[in-house]
Amino acid sequence: MNKGELIDAIAEKASVSKKDADRILTAALETIQEAVSSGEKVTLVGFGTFEPRERSAREGRNPKTGETMTIPATRVPAFSAGKLFKEKVVS
Question: Residue 52 in contact with residue 39, Cβ under 8 Å?
Answer without folding.
Answer: yes
